[in-house]
Amino acid sequence: MTPHRQTDPAAPSLEQARRQIARYGLTADPQAVLVAARLMAAGARIGQAGEVHFGRFGLSTGRYRLLADLEDHGGEKSPSQLATSLGVSRATVTGLVDGLEREGLVARRPSTDDGRGNVVILTARGADRLRELAPEHFARMQSMVAGLSVEERTVFLDLLARIVAGIEALAED
Amino acid sequence: MTPHRQTDPAAPSLEQARRQIARYGLTADPQAVLVAARLMAAGARIGQAGEVHFGRFGLSTGRYRLLADLEDHGGEKSPSQLATSLGVSRATVTGLVDGLEREGLVARRPSTDDGRGNVVILTARGADRLRELAPEHFARMQSMVAGLSVEERTVFLDLLARIVAGIEALAED
DNA sequence: TATCAGTGCTTAGGGAGCTAACTATTGGGT
DNA sequence: ACCCAATAGTTAGCTCCCTAAGCACTGATA
């Protein structure tokens, strides 16, 4: 359960960026590259921290998101809908539901109006689990951004959204 | 190779945050929770986009980082050092090196001054690969943050660093 | 009405990362 | 000089997520 401890690993420096760009005789802006690299490093760290966080409650990030999404929709949703709203593949939903079902936090029922379909249901145990973890979960989420003032958070939200829009530049084509 | 396409999946809304907090009668600040949730969502997306990006060159994020780190250190480093500087476990380095060695981008040599140790060496093919992908890599990194002005990037860098410092709040204890 | 493309879900297989446990070697304390 | 804890690396086994391929069912079209 104790995850790999990182002193401050992948925090690339401006110097590194500059050196790499120079090595290949490119003309990229080192600061821009640095921002992108730092963001990718931060993304990885947040992901790992999230797993540790949810691991405390016997869940993973994916499983928590599925449970929370289910609760937000009256505790009942098809795997396809879940895949869409969580932004993962249907195969991934199958795996997440398998795990959650094994622990009795959700249940599968055949759909009444589509012979192919399933419905995933949040069980009482699942709802309990969400209720139990909520206080600590939200408290930790809050303290994660406690280093920023309200105004700074607003700015950050704006800048982050614009970068997220730029992510497709990495993946696109 | 074509990854799962997401319209705009896990972009939680302020309303959702508010509703969840209210459901459990908590007193958390919805905006703060929103920032944390958005950041986690963004982290996941960036991670996936990174895999797509490096997948184009027959690499993964981890493998690229290992190659780049190697090059930054004269093309020679021990697995333990790599684990430390990449911020991953030694077991993960073993796996990454296995893969890179299979493709001839890296080679293992027994250490001369420590009978237990290995040295991982960047091969000519490995250096070539880095050189080939550099132009596109840096161009895409740059365009990822192209939506921000230089000043905004500086602000973002500062805010991000302060949040990264707060990540331990999620994982700590 | 018979067919067939599309949709819903699962299975199979792969890569990344982790922890825990094991082997081999080193090096400091007695 | 010897022993034993610490260190280097690997292996085994887990979770998450993915793609690709398969099966079951639906529904529009000829």
Automatic annotation (TrEMBL), chains A, B:
- MF terms per GO, please? DNA binding; DNA-binding transcription factor activity
| SUPFAM superfamilies in UniProt | Winged helix' DNA-binding domain
Is Translocase found in the keyword set? no
UniProt superkingdom: Bacteria
Residue stretches spanning the membrane: none
UniProt keyword list:
DNA-binding, Transcription, Transcription regulation
Which Gene3D superfamilies has this protein been placed in? Winged helix-like DNA-binding domain superfamily/Winged helix DNA-binding domain
Can you give the residue ranges of the HTH marR-type domain?
7-165
Q: What is the name of the protein in this document?
A: HTH marR-type domain-containing protein
